[in-house]
């Protein structure tokens, strides 16, 4: 995509900007995977170092009246740990940058840090550095380093004939966000799913060992991520809605808000479920659910046709 | 330092907050150096991975009317690359997070990225990942990974009897910042030193190989960094002003602004000079200048007495 010289970030969109940035940064022999996948992979003897970075901005990625500081900490850690999971790696070490107004209570920052450390500890990962500075709004910048002993599973390996499979809760966090946005605090299980996602941390390595051909975590929305897989792999992906059992709390929210609860599942991110392709049904591991298939072509369809609802989240 | 439960970040100050955070984060057997030094060092077979992270906020760490986007990119890279230098390591890979308003011109972001990549390329380091998102103000979050094949040189190794030595320009960037703050654009050499610092990238490894006992880069101000060394090592440091030759442009700025030019040298950061201690005069390598000495005791003195001027920069 060519951009005008005076285009703004709003004009370019997140992916337009990234596409431009990737052109500027050159890799080298030590970069096995550079910008464009869930994480970068660096050549290190006896296993690779895997590194990924994410930003969270108050009011956009979290609200202090919707989640406690510890919740925000848990979520910030989870979304980064999930990026290593999505490579088939094991998260080990993290850094945190915290930019915040001078009138932010120290207690908030400490509770945030405690929640963050707690989520990391559940995986045996630790925070090894950081930076704090003053800013008008809270911006949290996390970088996570992991190790990967087998080949990392990229977005680009899906082949026609593969099956598409999902593991982990999907749509719950989006349902929780929807009720919070209407001023409600229940169903509590969905609100908690938004506040403290529970990514399937063991499933990335499991998928890699089972021979997954492509792997991604669902942070921008299920159909959006399927689109990333399809584009990177040069294939078409069809998602079958009959594969999803809509859990009762999502049905209740759909009924209360007058929305199709399937929208939360197809368009929702934030649960950090894992989406993978496997060469055949027999190779899909325990705990994974087949939700679609891979064919020649391009783009994402739902039940064989175009999908008109929201497919995910955009940053600009 | 004990903080009240309702204390703000402004109350705690940067170092107070960090001290609290460090208490929360536990290391593990793989963390050779965790929070509190210039960078974290992680145990990796055949050399260690060194990682450090930094934030820059518009209006606080840079101004778009004082420096071009490429300048800001150069500076953001330099200050991070310098942190690896300050461990005696070699910078290899970086990630960038960019939070910015939607009306930021794409050209600014791209020029920033080009400047950043250019500074990295001068060392053979490369950008391997990143994140972009929307925010009210520009926040740049950089993480740098490096390798270290010998033992890293920490802040805590200075011993009584050691000599204190400096390499790289010192005070130039502070002089440039001072003239920009008064609305001037010259002396140009100082303004350029602020816009594009030239850290002595080869000197960190040089100092490590020469047997430096402690090492730090000067980003918060020379006396402030000497204070960090003294505190971490449990020693007293005396800085001798007679050791500094005040360069002509700094003399000119001092005369124009009615300030003692030595203030720029003693209080200035941003040049990312390196400050180290060595066991004796004979071990101080070529290119380094002896600027003081280490004794039993605590704190930093200047020419044997207390210093009343500004000693550095605080973030809250």
From TrEMBL, chains A, B:
Binding positions for Mg(2+) 5 per the UniProt entry: 220
EC class (word): transferase
Domain PurM-like N-terminal intervals: 36-147
Residues given in the record as Mg(2+) 1 binding sites: 53-54, 131
Entry-linked InterPro entries: PurM-like_C_dom, PurM-like_C_sf, PurM-like_N, PurM-like_N_sf, ThiL-like
Pathway linked to the protein: Cofactor biosynthesis; thiamine diphosphate biosynthesis; thiamine diphosphate from thiamine phosphate: step 1/1
Positions of Mg(2+) 4 binding: 38, 52, 83
NCBIfam families per record: PRK05731.1-4, thiL
Protein name: Thiamine-monophosphate kinase
Organism: Nocardioides eburneiflavus
Recorded name of the encoding gene: thiL
């Amino acid at each position: 995509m060519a951009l005008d010289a005076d285009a703004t970030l709003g004009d370019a969109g997140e992916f337009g900007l990234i596409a431009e940035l990737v052109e500027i940064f050159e890799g080298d022999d030590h970069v096995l995977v550079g910008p464009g996948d869930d994480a970068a992979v660096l050549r290190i003897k006896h296993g690779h170092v895997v590194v990924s970075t994410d930003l969270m901005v108050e009011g956009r990625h979290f609200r202090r009246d919707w989640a406690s500081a510890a919740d925000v900490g848990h979520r910030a850690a989870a979304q980064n740990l999930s990026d290593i999971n999505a490579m088939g790696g094991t998260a080990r070490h993290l850094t945190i940058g915290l930019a915040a107004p001078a009138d932010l209570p120290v207690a908030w920052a400490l509770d945030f840090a405690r929640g963050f450390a707690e989520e990391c500890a559940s995986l045996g990962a630790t925070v090894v550095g950081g930076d704090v500075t003053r800013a008008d709004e809270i911006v949290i910048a996390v970088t996570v380093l992991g190790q990967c002993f087998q080949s990392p599973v990229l977005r680009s390996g899906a082949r026609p004939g593969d099956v598409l499979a999902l593991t982990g809760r999907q749509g719950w966090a989006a349902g929780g966000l929807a009720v919070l946005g209407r001023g409600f605090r229940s169903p509590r299980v969905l609100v908690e799913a938004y506040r403290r996602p529970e990514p399937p941390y063991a499933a990335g390595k499991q998928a890699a060992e089972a021979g997954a051909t492509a792997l991604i975590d669902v942070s921008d929305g299920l159909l959006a991520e399927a689109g990333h897989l399809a584009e990177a792999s040069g294939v078409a992906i069809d998602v079958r809605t009959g594969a999803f059992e809509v859990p009762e709390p999502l049905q209740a929210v759909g009924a209360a808000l007058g929305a199709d609860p399937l929208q939360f599942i197809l368009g929702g991110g934030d649960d950090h479920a894992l989406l993978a392709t496997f060469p055949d049904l027999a190779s899909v591991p325990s705990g994974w659910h087949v939700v679609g298939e891979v064919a020649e072509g391009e783009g994402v369809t739902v039940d064989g046709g175009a999908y008109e609802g929201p497919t995910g989240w955009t940053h600009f």
